[in-house]
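User: Fold this; tokens only.

Assistant: Input:
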Amino acid sequence: MTDTKDWNPEDLLLYVSGRSAQENSISELKTSFAFDHIPTNTYQANSAYLQISQMAYNLATSMQHSMGLAQERKTNKKFTRLHRIMEWRTFRFLILNRAGKIGLENGCKVLQMTENPETKSLYEQIFNSLEEIEAKKAA
């Protein structure tokens, strides 16, 4: 049902299909941010828990935008999202869960990681994006 009576049926179907993209966000909240878990028997505690889950999701999304990892995409009536972002498990795998070992160089502990050009390029992209944000703040 809609209160917009001047839409033809095809446009309305495309709009509804585009709005269903929110299902991806809900799925991500459930799988990666424990949104489907109700930890207590009190309304206030559960409400706070779910709000914290939502804030964590928003922070993860914002972090990808800040790091320059959110890819712009063309929108139309069916695809209404402006950016494509990674799922949180993909983000964790690419950015956070990196194999390495702690070694000594000149008596100092250093993190040694394997040489991987794609990973280096990704980390440089993130570094450059964050430097641009710092430069804007300083200006």
